[in-house]
Amino acid sequence: MSILHTPFSLKSVTIRNRVGVSPMCMFNAQDGLASDWHLAHYGARAIGGAGLIIVEATAVEARGRITANDLGIWSDAHVEPLARINRFIKAQGTVPGMQIAHAGRKGSISTAQNGGQLAANEPGGWEIIGPSAVAFGGALGQVPREMTIEDIRAVQDAFFAAAKRALAAGVEWLEIHAAHGYLAHSFYSPLGNRRADNYGGVFENRIRFLMETVAGVRAVWPETLPLTVRISATDWADERGGWTLEDSVALAKRLKAAGIDLVDTSTGGGAPDAKIPVAPGYQVPFAERIRREAGIATAAVGLITDAAQAEEILREGRADIVLIGRESLRDPNWPQRAARELGADVKAFAPGQYARAW
Ligand code: FNR
Q1: Which end is more exposed in the chain, N or C (fewer Cβ atoms within 10 Å of the end residue's Cβ)?
Q2: In ligand 1, which atom is closest to the CA atom of 57?
Q3: In what residue span(s) does the NADH:flavin oxidoreductase/NADH oxidase N-terminal domain sit (predicted)?
C-alpha cells in the first residue's frame, strides 16, 4: 500500500494524498492580480491529482514583491481572481493553499531575463527594505533601507490583512514564507541582520519579527485550518556564523508552541556564495531532524522527482508530506504517474474525464 497515496489530515483539512505542489512564482501577474495563466497552470496540477497546491509567493504589499510581475494580495481587488482559481482547484479535489510573502531586500528585481536588481528610481524598481542597510550581495547589489519599528509594524499588519484576504479567497492551507533570504529569513539569519534593537543580536531577538508575524496571523486565521511556515533550515554557511539546523530545531519548537501546524523545510537563499551540496532529496535530512526533534509535522522538498523516492521518505518517517516543484512543471500529472508506479488506484486521483487514459 502506497503511503504517498493515503490521505493526510492537518487540523480540519484532509488532503487526498501526500503530494503537494511546491510554491513557485510564475512572474505572470499585472499589479499583483492573478490571471488566466494562473487558473490554467494551477488548474492543470489539480486535475493532475495533487492533494495540495500551495500557490506561489503572494506579496503582502507591493514593495514585498520580488519582481513587478509577482502575485499580490495587498488589496481587496486581489481576492476574486484568486478565489476563482481556488474554486476550480477545490472542485478537482485538491486543497487550495497559498504562500504569503515579503521579499525584503531581495525585491525590486527586473522582469527582464538576467535583468538584475533595480534601483528605486529605475523604471519597475522600488525602495527595498530589510532589517539592516546591508545589500544581499552577488547580483543583488542594492542597499535596503533599514526598517524602523513603524515599518516592522506596517509589514506585519500587511501579513495579517493578507491572511484575512486569503481566507476570503477560499484558501484552506496558509503558508508564511520565511525562507530563501526574503524578509523574515533576513531577520532570523545572522548574515542579514545587524540590528542593535529587540529585532537583532541574539537568537531570541532575530526570530522576533517572524514570531510576532506568526502570532498575528494565527489570531486572524481560523484555528481549524492549517497554518504553516516555510523556513530555510540552514544558510549552508555554518563556518561564517550563518543560521544552522540546530537554530531551526529551536525555532520549530517555538513555532509549534505558537500554533504552527507544519514546517515546510527548505534551505538556502541567505548568502549569495553559499556552497550547497545539491543532490536528490538533499533537504530531506533537515525535514527529518525538525520532525523528530521539534515534534512537528514537516514537508520535505527539493529534488524529489521519483515516486519510489517520495514513498521511501514517508515510509521512513522523515516527513509527513512531500512537495514537488520543478518535476510538477515538467509533468502536471505527476501524482497520477506516481500512483501507477506505486500500484495505487490511479482513478482516485484522476478526473472522470480522463478515466479512459488510465
Ligand atoms: C521556486 N521556489 C519557490 N519557493 C517558495 O517558497 N516560494 C516561491 O514562490 C518559489 N518560487 C519558485 C519558482 C520557480 C520557477 C522555482 C523552480 C522554484 C522553490 C520551490 O518551491 C522548491 O522549493 C524548489 O524548486 C526545490 O524543489 P524542486 O523543484 O527540486 O522539487
Answers
A1: N
A2: 9
A3: 4-342
Q: For residue range 268-288, what is the model confidence (pLDDT) as tens digits?
A: 999 999 999 999 999 999 999
CA gap 29, 95 in Å, rounded: 22
* Maximum Cα–Cα distance across the chain: 64
Structure ipTM over 0.90, yes or no: yes
CA atoms within 13 Å, Cβ hemisphere of 356: 1
Q: Is 30 exposed, middle or buried (0-12, 13-18, 19+ CB in 10 A)?
A: exposed
Q: Is 301 in the pocket of ligand 1 (CB under 6 A)?
A: yes
What percent of the residues of the chain are helix, what percent strand, and what percent coil, each to the nearest 5? 40, 20, 45
Cβ–ligand 1 contact at 325 (below 6 Å): yes
Q: Which of 19, 21, 24, 54 to mutate to test the pocket of ligand 1 (most atoms within 8 A of CB)?
A: 24
CB atoms within 10 A of CB 280: 11
Q: Which CATH number fits domain 3-357: 3.90.1720.10, 3.90.226.10, 3.20.20.70, 3.40.50.2300?
A: 3.20.20.70
State in Å: Cα 239 to ligand 1 middle: 26
Ligand 1 nearest atom to the CA of residue 328, by list position:
31
| 3-class DSSP string for 296-307 | CEEEEECCCCCH
- Joined together, the cell numbers standing for residue 68 give 513587478
The cell for 209 is: 519579527
Return the number of other C-beta atoms located less than 10 Å from residue 210's C-beta: 23
Phi-psi label, residue 32: left if phi above 0, alpha if psi -120 to 50, beta otherwise = left
Q: What is the pTM assigned to this prediction?
A: 0.98
* DSSP H or E stretch at residue 53: strand 52-59
Q: What is the pLDDT of residues 25-44, one digit of tens each?
A: 999 999 999 999 999 999 99
199 is catalytic: no
